[in-house]
Every structure is written in structure tokens, then in C-alpha cells.
Design a protein that fits this description.
This protein has 16 helices and 13 strands. The chain has 441 residues and is of the alpha/beta class. The protein has a single domain, classed as TIM Barrel (Alpha-Beta Barrel), CATH 3.20.20.30. The structure holds flavin mononucleotide (FMN). Flavin mononucleotide (FMN) binds next to strand 3 and helix 12.
């Protein structure tokens, strides 16, 4: 399929710091500790940079889940969500291994304080030459807060209201130094011009801060902000602040509705919708033949159909609700009336938007949060191009739960060259800094 008139799209990689990757696969036999393997993270970051991905998104949650049968067992047994590293430490490590790619770390507005986020992200931005970013999440788990001395997270929309003020204050800290505050004037013997560093004196409903920050204005001014809330409150927050909005993939009609909606929200709030890239979660299995790719997909589906406990446990964590209390062969339609959750609304809606007759076991085996890209480099390039044309989207956040070096190479050295040959992805970075590069056209 062709390409001259094709619209270029953007790519990010979702580093799902979330599973012990495919530690049981034949290709991980000598690498069962990828979650903490420095050489693997260097390989990963440099491979993605060589493939000219715009950024790496580092996932984070900070608790050992027990959402499944009120027990840690499923998570620890299968290496789900633990063991994992601290996201900021990992960001720093990935940035140090690279020179061009952006690294966007998840920092939760219910776990951090605004000054802390402002300082961490600004520091990484300086150290990396302007490549740091922040994935704004509100968190969905009481367990996370219990590691910080509190009992329960607040109600869903209240969390987003707090997040709104949180982001505003973070930006105030970043702006508390003028871009030219560090004058380094030897003749006058002035390193920082005091007139260019300002108190904030912020007094909101939830936070107050005097400022200024100790870290000068980030090199990017505003580091790259991403946000993934699918609920109305989440979409509004994303539309107000994000440079990159992350949507769940799947049905192109829903993807289009989502993109149109967040772009309308941006326009209603006075932002130019083209100032933000709406990117969809895509799962990739790249192989030399369609049959091989399909075989790998089927291997994964069969694994879950045979023992759905780990995939159900993952769903319980993602939506903060215990589906472990149901039989895997119960119909979702029968489960729906019994569900209450203060967690991820958009994902919960997806669970119950399935056709009648789908069981819990079948649902977790399909995992409909993703746009599935399964095939050869050529077929996936066709497919991606088609989805972008139908959705009008700006790109994809690709991921693979079953990550290993082989899968990564199939993407960076199989799929990407084909996308590049068609002019669908960037052949090189246009800017040194992450945000201008993402928003280049
Ligand atoms: C691509 C993507 C990445 C996400 N990464 C994280 C994460 O690292 N940590 C987290 O707590 N939530 C993460 N989320 C969840 C979102 O922040 C949000 O809670 C979820 O999309 C539900 O939002 P809603 O309640 O507005 O529907 C992610 C979501 C998506 C789609």
C-alpha cells in the first residue's frame, strides 16, 4: 500500500513497568530479571531511539495489589505489578542512556506533592537536554495511599479536581524562573538575576505554595505532559493541559469519538487542538509471516483461556474491583449489576460494553483495551495506516506485556523500517527537545 499522500503519525512506547515481562518464555531463559536489568533498559531505550520513537512512557503504580480475592497471591505468583522499580529512578536511567528520545514518567497527583513533581521533572529536563515529561495520573487505589499514611483515595471526580489545581501549581513552579534568569554575567559578577526569579504565592482550594522553585525553568519551558483519563473529568483535564493524550485502542469508531471529543474540549477551552497529539494504545506482535504472528497471538490467548487467573487479577487491579469473586465462566452481563468501583471508569465501561454472551474468561483473553497490530511489518503498516485514516488520530502508544529482546527487535528492526519506507513515521528527530519534536507538525 502506498504512501506519498499518507499522513505521518507519532509513536511512543508504553513501558509497562507492570509485569515481570515474559519471564517464562523460551527467549527469556537467561534473562528472567528484565524488570531490573540495566543492560536491558539501555538496549530498550537505544533501540526505541534508533527507531525514532517520540517518547517512552514509564508506567507507575506504587503498591502490591490485592484486588483479586483480597490477596497478594495472584500478583506475586505471576509477577504482576511487582516486582517493579521506582518510575523516577528508571526515567533518569533511560534519559542517561539516550540523547534524543523523550522519557515521560508517571507521577500520581494523589501520591506526590506539586513541588515534588515540579522539582523532579524540571531536574530531569535539565539533565537530559529537554527530554523529560510527566504522565499525569490521579491513581485509583486505596492501597497506594496506605503506603503514604492515608486510608482511602477520594471520589473519582474530586481526584480530578485536585489534579487540575496540582498541575496549575506545578506549572507555576516551572514559571517561577524566567527563561533568561541565569545570566552568568562575569563583569557584573551576577550568576542569577534576582529580578527574574519570582515567588508564586499560590493559594488554591487544595494546595498553597510560596515558591520560587530551586530549579530554574525547565529547558523545554513546559516539559511534555501526557494524560490518559477516559472519563468526562479525565478528558477535561487532558484537554486543558496535555501535549499528548493517551486513549485506549480497540474499536476505531470509539477511538474517533474519543479523539473528536477531546479535541472539542480543547477548542472549547481556547486551545488549538493541533497542539496535542492524541495517541492510542496498540499491542504489537510482529512476525515474518501472518501464520507465525497468529500462532503467537493464539499462544497468548490459549494461555489465558486455560488459566485466566492472572489476566483477571490484572483487570481487578486496573479497575480496582474484585472480579475474583466470580466464576471465570460467568457472563459479563450477569456480573455487571453487582459491580461498584471508584476506579477507572472508562475501562469499566469497556468491560460492560461487550456483546452478550461474553464470559469473564473470554473477555480477559481478548483484552479489548488495545488496537491489535498482529502480523508482518507490511500488514501492520497497512493496518496502522488504515486506523489512522479512519480515526484521524495522531499516532500510537505501542506496548507488549510479553516483552523480551526478540519482540522489541521485531518492532524496531522489522515494523519501523517498513513504516519509515512509507513515510508514515519520522526518519529523524526534527528537534533536540521532546515536546517541540512531538508537536513539530
Ligand atoms: C496508555 C495508558 C497509560 C496509563 N498509565 C497509567 C499509570 O502508569 N499509572 C496509573 O495509575 N494509571 C495509568 N493509566 C490509567 C489512567 O491514568 C486513568 O486512571 C484511566 O485511564 C482511567 O481514567 P478515567 O477514570 O478518567 O476513565 C494509564 C492509562 C492509559 C490508557
Amino acid at each position: 500500500m502506498t504512501t506519498d499522500s499518507a499522513k505521518r503519525f507519532r509513536l511512543a512506547w508504553f513501558l509497562d513497568n507492570h509485569v515481570a515481562y515474559d519471564w517464562g518464555s523460551p527467549f527469556s531463559r537467561e534473562h528472567t530479571d528484565l524488570w531490573a536489568d540495566p543492560a536491558f533498559f539501555v538496549d530498550l531505550a537505544r533501540s526505541l531511539e534508533r527507531a525514532r520513537f517520540d517518547y517512552i512512557l514509564v508506567e507507575d503504580t506504587s503498591y502490591v495489589p490485592d484486588n483479586h480475592n483480597e490477596s497478594y497471591d495472584a500478583y506475586l505468583t505471576h509477577g504482576l505489578a511487582v516486582p517493579k522499580l521506582d518510575a523516577v529512578s528508571l526515567m533518569s536511567f533511560l534519559l542517561n542512556a539516550t540523547t534524543k528520545i523523550g522519557v515521560v514518567g508517571t507521577l500520581s497527583t494523589t501520591e506526590y506533592l506539586p513541588y515534588h513533581v515540579a522539582r523532579v521533572v524540571a531536574s530531569l529536563d535539565h539533565l537530559s537536554g529537554g527530554r523529560a515529561g510527566w504522565n499525569i495520573v490521579t491513581g485509583i487505589s486505596d492501597r497506594a495511599l496506605q503506603n503514604y499514611g492515608q486510608d482511602r483515595i477520594l471520589e473519582h471526580d474530586a481526584r480530578y479536581a485536585i489534579a487540575d489545581e496540582f498541575v496549575e501549581l506545578v506549572q507555576n513552579f516551572w514559571n517561577s524562573w524566567d527563561a533568561d534568569a541565569v545570566v552568568k554575567d562575569r563583569e557584573r559578577n551576577v550568576y542569577v538575576d534576582p529580578a527574574k526569579v519570582h515567588e508564586i504565592n499560590f493559594k488554591g482550594e487544595h494546595f498553597a505554595a510560596r515558591g520560587p522553585s530551586v530549579v530554574p525553568r525547565p529547558l523545554q519551558g513546559k516539559p511534555l505532559l501526557s494524560q490518559a483519563g477516559g472519563s468526562p473529568a479525565g478528558r477535561s483535564l487532558a484537554a486543558k493541559y496535555a501535549d499528548s493524550i493517551l486513549g485506549i485502542g480497540g474499536d476505531p469508531a470509539l477511538m474517533k469519538e474519543y479523539r473528536d471529543d477531546v479535541r472539542n474540549r480543547m477548542a472549547a477551552g481556547g486551545r488549538n487542538p493541533d497542539e496535542c497529539k492524541v495517541m492510542f494504545l496498540g499491542r504489537v506482535i510482529v512476525a515474518s509471516t501472518m501464520a507465525q504472528a497468529e500462532e503467537e497471538r493464539q499462544r497468548r490467548v490459549d494461555m489465558i483461556l486455560e488459566d485466566p487467573s492472572w489476566a483477571i487479577a490484572l483487570l481487578c487491579k486496573d479497575v480496582s474491583f474484585d472480579f475474583g469473586q466470580f466464576d471465570p465462566d460467568d457472563l459479563l452481563a450477569d456480573i455487571a449489576p453487582k459491580v461498584t468501583s471508584n476506579g477507572a471508569q472508562s475501562l469499566m465501561r469497556d468491560v460492560f460494553a461487550q456483546p452478550p454472551g461474553v464470559t469473564l474468561r473470554q473477555y480477559v483473553a481478548q483484552d479489548t483495551q488495545y488496537a491489535d497490530f498482529i502480523g508482518t511489518p507490511e500488514s501492520i503498516a497497512d493496518n496502522m495506516q488504515d486506523v489512522m485514516e479512519r480515526v484521524g488520530g495522531d499516532g500510537f502508544v505501542l506496548t507488549d506485556y510479553f516483552l523480551d529482546r526478540r519482540g522489541l527487535a521485531a518492532v524496531t528492526d522489522g515494523l519501523i523500517p517498513e513504516l519509515r519506507r512509507r513515510g508514515l513515521v519520522q526518519a529523524d528527530y526534527a528537534h533536540d527537545m521532546a515536546r517541540p519534536n512531538l508537536l513539530a507538525d
